[in-house]
Amino acid sequence: MKIIFNFVWPLASVFAKIIVICTILDLSFTFADDYPGKWYGWHCPHVKQSDMPGLFRGDAFPDQVVLNSWGYRANDVDEIKGLLPEPFYNMVKHPEIWGAIRINETAYISNDEWPGKHISIRKKATEFYRGGPYIDEKGHIQNYKAGIPFPESKNGIEIAWNLVTARNFGEKVWCIFTTAVTNKRGHTNFAVVENSYFWFSGLLYGENGPLYVPNPNRYDSFNAVGYNAPYDLKGSIPLTHRYDDPEKPDDMWLYIPCLRKVRRLSTTQRWDKLPGGFDFTYDSILCFQGKPTNYEWRYLGRKILLCGHNSAYRLQQIKGKPGGFPDQQYQRVNTVVLEYRPKIFCPISKAVLYLDPDSYFPYYAEFYDKNAMLSRFDGNIWSVDTSGLIHPGSMLVTDVLSVHSTSNYIYDTRNNLDAKNICPSFFAMNYLKGYFGGR
């Protein structure tokens, strides 16, 4: 016994010293604690839960009464099978695969009841310019100024342009989020990513001012994705410049820190997955982020689904499972169902989107491979801020064939005037390399 004590005590002393040192250096051996009394928590080692400010300006509807719940520790999800996309129903039905998920229904709050000025400004622009926009023979929008170009349309290509011009996030956007890339064995890799946008068209507020006019290159938008963590990805930057021209493909670059090189990407890379093992691709971010002219579109009608339309903002992670929506809020929405099929090189045969009928933001997307088998399912939980803009507080991208997912959690965002640094000069690769600390 004395021998054992003499052996263990020095180890305990050393271990205690290590704990003290780690405490002083603010290091940690474990992930953040779970939320009290919940089966989910916040497990990203790169960002402390206590350091998250949440959505800038908060969410507009934080205290919602739950009308009913289905799934984990609630009613049988079979009761609402017809109110969920089939792949999402299968996820809730099989917690042993995807993790425990609960569907909480709250009251639907129409877009006209949202706070702030954004909805009213866009409605005025929609009515003022109604009848002006049209689709040319190449499928490109012409004579578009601002607002929703084709409200209440049942034409597929017109609905696609409603989706990409709605400016639901404002005219310039900066956000930071974590991703949790999880395989079927429960192993998870985390990353911290910043995503920024700047649009030249569809301006509602005039905040961009005369500095960005004229636009001789006919840019439509800029998008930059920069990695802050982990270390092996830090400083990686995919960058896209998009043109307001159906004949001119995007300009795309990727900065690779370990090579200290910028590599030009071709437009055929639009369906490559983003660095970090992510499940989403450049054109499928937020269900669709491509050029409408690269796809064929078809309106499939309407379908009432439980969707994250005006959900309270909640950051939730399931530890060790690939599901990403443990305990979110949903509302009944008569969604617009829209199908697109690629005309460019693409690993999918088609995708089906479920959109908001007023603002055209996407709730869900189903992707089918070349054999017409469901291969991927995406979902977005939207929260409304006090200005009437929306934010995808949680995004789930799942590879249903390999049981693999990328869960995305936005924990801070800036829009319009609050995104002071987001301007055209921000989207130059030389500037971005310094901004993200590329080696």
TrEMBL record:
UniProt superkingdom: Bacteria
A Pfam family annotated for this UniProt entry: DUF1329
InterPro entries in the record: DUF1329
Name used for this protein in its record: DUF1329 domain-containing protein
